[in-house]
Amino acid sequence: MAMTEPRARLAGKVAIITGGGGAMGGAQAKLFASEGAAVCVADNWPEPAREVADVIANAGGRAIAVELDVRDAAAWSAAVAQTELAFGPVSLLCNNAGANFRVGFEEQTEEQFRLIMEVGLNGAFLGIKAVVPSMRKAGTGVILNMGSLAAIKPGGGSPGYAAQKMAMVGLTRSAAQSFARDNIRCVIISPGHVDTPFIRGNNEHSPNDWATSIDNPENFERRLKATPLGRLQQPEDIANAFMFAATDDAAMITGSMITVDGGAAM
Ligand SMILES: NC(=O)c1ccc[n+]([C@@H]2O[C@H](COP(=O)([O-])OP(=O)(O)OC[C@H]3O[C@@H](n4cnc5c(N)ncnc54)[C@H](O)[C@@H]3O)[C@@H](O)[C@H]2O)c1
């Protein structure tokens, strides 16, 4: 068997990564770029997206930062157009953008429920619609949706989050079936407890206080205990699975869920 130099795993690929200024989206953007992809780092908050794109560019990679509210179809069209102009047709889409309000059924307001659904679910739906024509031009595509433990066994907390993440399974299967003949795959990746600002910090899209943040040792320990492999996931653990699913190593995987949760869903 002849041995050859390993090729960058995403050479020639063009990716749009939503929530790209966030922890998991940022880790995906950096990993994808290090494997040869040109990356559009898209986020509602432009500053963190700019920072991720700068890190990539400073390391010799190719990236642009784009301000994108995933709830806005016109903004999606503009983001795809900007990406095509910079790098050519889009072949990878990572739908990371998400929101949560950690209150129970009776406390969750209609406004909070709507926001969770509109960012996580409608945002991914609009993203897929905007990107598929570009993927057809590329002749190939992979759509990677961010799931969660809540897509498998939602707890008794935030009803909007449970509904959004379970609905993401349906959206993934629908896209997988709709676009398989276009050589476009769609996969949902479900992390367990990932140490990011989503569950540690206090951001507009995902507020936490002492009662919910993993800064509180009780919350940290509870999540740790729920993870048989004995540590919380890091954004890079999840980015590695996104990478696998994006490559031809996963050529026959579509409509599926990949869990990366240290065994938490067992
Ligand atoms: N951290 C966890 O334990 C965990 C576990 C499972 C799934 N998730 C999911 O992972 C995804 C990413 O979360 P993270 O942990 O990296 O947190 P994060 O807060 O670092 O990232 C979320 C990103 O989404 C962006 N965003 C929010 N609303 C947006 C909008 N309207 N338009 C565009 N971007 C928007 C934010 O600016 C942020 O950059 C979310 O979908 C979340 O539900 C998180």
Key features of this structure:
single chain, 266 residues, alpha/beta, Rossmann fold, 7-stranded parallel beta sheet, 8 helices, 43% helix, globular, binds nicotinamide-adenine-dinucleotide
Would you write up a description of this structure?
- With 266 residues, the protein is α/β, with parallel strands linked by helices.
- The protein has a single domain, classed as NAD(P)-binding Rossmann-like Domain (Rossmann fold).
- It is 43% helix and 15% strand.
- The protein has a seven-stranded parallel beta sheet, with helices on both faces.
- Helix 1 links the parallel strand 1 and strand 2.
- Helix 1 runs parallel beside helix 2, helix 1 packs across helix 8 and helix 4 runs parallel beside helix 5.
- The longest helix is centred in the middle third of the chain and has 29 residues.
- The protein is globular, with a radius of gyration of 18 Å.
- The chain starts with 13 loop residues before the first strand and ends in a 6-residue tail after the last strand.
- The model has no long low-confidence stretch (mean pLDDT 97).
Q: What is the CATH superfamily classification?
A: NAD(P)-binding Rossmann-like Domain
What oligomeric arrangement do these chains adopt?
A: single chain
Radius of gyration: 18 Å
Count the domains.
Answer: 1
Provide a brief overview of the structure.
The protein has 266 residues and is an alpha/beta fold. Helix content is 43%, strand content 15%.
Question: Topology of this protein?
Answer:
Elements: E1 14-18, H1 23-34, E2 38-43, H2 46-58, E3 62-67, H3 73-87, E4 92-95, H4 110-138, E5 141-146, H5 159-179, E6 184-191, H6 197-200, H7 217-225, H8 235-246, E7 257-260
Parallel strand pairs: 1-2, 1-4, 2-3, 4-5, 5-6, 6-7
Helix pairs in contact: 1-2, 1-8, 3-4, 4-5
This protein binds nicotinamide-adenine-dinucleotide (NAD).
